[in-house]
Amino acid sequence: MAMHGGEGTEAPSFRVPPLLLTDLAGTITHVTPDILALAGAERPDDMIGRHGDDFWADAERAAEARAIFLREGFWHGSYHLRCRDGSTIQVHSKAWKLFGPDGGCAAILVSPNAVAVEMFSLFGQGGTVVFPEIVLRGLIHDLNNALTAPIGLLSFLNECPPSDPAETSEIARQISVSCDHARDLLKRLRAPLDAWVGKSEAPQPLDIGTLVANAFGTASVGASARGAPRIAEGLWPVLGEESSLFRVLINLMLNARQASRRDAMPTVSADNISGDPPFVRIAVEDRGCGMTPQEIENIFQAGYTTKAEGSGIGLAISRLIVQEHGGRIEVRSEKGRGSVFEVWLPATGSACSRHS
Fold first, then answer.
1. Three-state helix/strand/coil letters over the chain
2. Which pLDDT tens digit goes with each residue over 21-65?
3. Mean per-residue pLDDT, 327-343
4. Whether this model's pTM surpasses 0.85
5. Architecture field, domain 19-130
6. Domain covering 202-353, topology
């Protein structure tokens, strides 16, 4: 496999992911052939037993990444890899803390090609399927969200069947949307098999306005006050993976609904933001009690939650997904007045390019 390539090049077809394993102290315990080739190493012993930070050109950045990884259980970003001959090369990387029979280790994907590390699951040593803990918990969390709406709608149809055919048709559409979302989540469980044979789902231009409207309809099932999202006319498309972004929107809207008084739906809007580059901004505003600065600082950490029965996983996964799409999530909150979560996604297409 040819490892060198620009960020915009097509992801290579690999049968073994470009993967290395370390213990939690950072000592390398396993490397795949592509990692050896990338670092210019001749044999595994050239890397195994050494500390992973030895291969970072920037020691300060290495220390910062390790601190984030130990605190949050995952890290992703880019850095300059120091090769055996003393040269450096920019690489993209994702690191997860794994659980399983051995437990307590880190799995790290490294490649000069950003697309090559866009994988949610990995194969462990010996071909054993290993799901990063953050990913598996996120799938369980979001699958529960996806099934809540159709179960509630079916219960409503059984207890209070509507007399208006149009209302029945809309309920059927919402059930279909929710079931499609659940099916997409279950497909994620095939990710290790697909990754092993080099399959990946390419990002597509998305009608983000329709995605926002569908997520709002699903999240509003059973709400005491529903309303409707405000979607700007001529909203620009974004380049992304539909089921992943739907997960983000559902998470934010359900969180806001649960935080709001009287189980009301949040205020949701989607707007074009001109600039270089141009963005689409989706804002989700709740009517809850707000957060303290300390809570805002911790809210995206895996396992942290302000809810009595929360998992502390939804926002961590949501931020990861948005960052993988080249975007960000911003939070504004005032104690006693509520919170606003804004998703910023890079826009695409000829229409938005005129506004950059």
1. CCCCCCCCCCCCCCCCCCEEEEECCCEEEEECHHHHHHHCCCCHHHCCCCEHHHHECCHHHHHHHHHHHHHHCEEEEEEEEECCCCCEEEEEEEEEEECCCCCCEEEEEEECCHHHHCCCCEECHHHCEECEHHHHHHHHHHHHHHHHHHHHHHHHHHHCCCCCHHHHHHHHHHHHHHHHHHHHHHHHCCHHHHHHCCCCCCCEEECHHHHHHHHHHHHCCCCCECCCCEECCCCCCEEECHHHHHHHHHHHHHHHHHHCHHHECCEEEEEEECCCCCEEEEEEECCCCCCCHHHHHHCCCCCCCCCCCCCCCHHHHHHHHHHHCCCEEEEEEECCCEEEEEEEEEECCHHHHCCC
2. 788 788 888 887 778 888 888 888 888 899 988 888 888 888 888
3. 91
4. no
5. 2-Layer Sandwich (3.30)
6. Heat Shock Protein 90 (3.30.565)
